[in-house]
Every structure is written in structure tokens, then in C-alpha cells.
Fold this protein.
Amino acid sequence: MSKILLIGASGTLGQAVQANLGARHDVITAGRRSGTHRADFAQPGALAALFAAVGKVDAIVSTAGNVHFGPLAGMTPEQFNLGLQDKLLGQVQLALLGQQYLNDGGSITLTSGILAVEPIPNGASASTVNAAIEGFVMAAAIELPRGLRINAVSPTIVTESAATYGPFFPGFESVPAERVARAYQRSVEGAQTGRVYRVQ
């Protein structure tokens, strides 16, 4: 049984990942407003305190991160910056700090999204952030020491969230959160690194 730190466990994807991995592993949850530990991963100090409390782990999984959706013509730098600071830099900081707390051979799994390769109107910020996460994962994989691995999961719209986000994704087929969770299982329990697991 591995010790896994799951960031964003209260969300739709996070709950599905916890159900999947929790069946076989010791999953420690963390989030802004819920979880075993409270931490905003966009704040480096909060992350440092989180890892100090949790200690060494075998895997780190992130299903968290916010971005701004809105028309490009009226988007402000501050709105665009939300995704850069939260979903992108938050997950990058999680990986940079987390590598120090991973046992040899451990893994990091981040979350990007289909908009990295399938842009939609009002999604310029999300497309930028998701593509950057995938670029970071591919680059970090060739440098991580001690047999550490890093991957990203890139889901399309999740069925359980279709009522809210479906109008932004016309013609996209949704996938159940449980199916997306299996991609996180592949990343944690498999042997690959530098991969983007696309679920669509």
C-alpha cells in the first residue's frame, strides 16, 4: 500500500480519483476548504507547511486548479493571470516542492485538459495554461532524480459537470469521472513518465 497525497479531493474529479486509489492505497486529502489538510497550493508557504505535516509520500496527485473563462476581447491581464498563478504555477510549485518529499521511484500526476489541443471560444486562458502544464511535465520528466516520475492527465468535459460546463463545449462527448480516474491510476501505479494521458 502506497501513501498518496491528493490535492483537490473534494472536486468531481478528485472524488473519483480518491475512490479509485483509496481502494488500494492510503490516500491523504488536501484542499482549500476541505480534506484531511487545508492548503491553497497557489501559496508556496501553505504547500511547505502541508508537506511538513504530511511527510514522505509515494505519490502526489493534483486534480485542482482554477482558470478564467471569458471573451478574449474583454479579458484583462488580471483575469488571464488567475490561471497562470493558480492552475499552472500552483501545480508547478507542487511538483518543485513535492519532489523533495517523494520516496525513491515515486510519482507526480498533474491535471491539464482537452483545451490544450482543442481550443474553444472563451477558453484562451485555459488553453494556454493546459498546454504549459503539459510542456512542464514533458521537460521535468527528463530531469527528475531517483527514479521519480511525472505525468499529466488531460480529460475532456466530465459527464458529472456537463450540466454546468456543457454549453461551453458544443459537440464534445463527455466522459464519466470514474473513467478519467483510471488515467490517474495508470500514472500512479504504472511505470511511464513524461506522458500526457488524454481521456476523451
The mean pLDDT is 95. The chain is about 40% helix and 20% strand. The longest strand covers residues 102-111. Strands lie at 3-7, 26-31, 37-38, 57-62, 102-111, 149-155, 196-199.
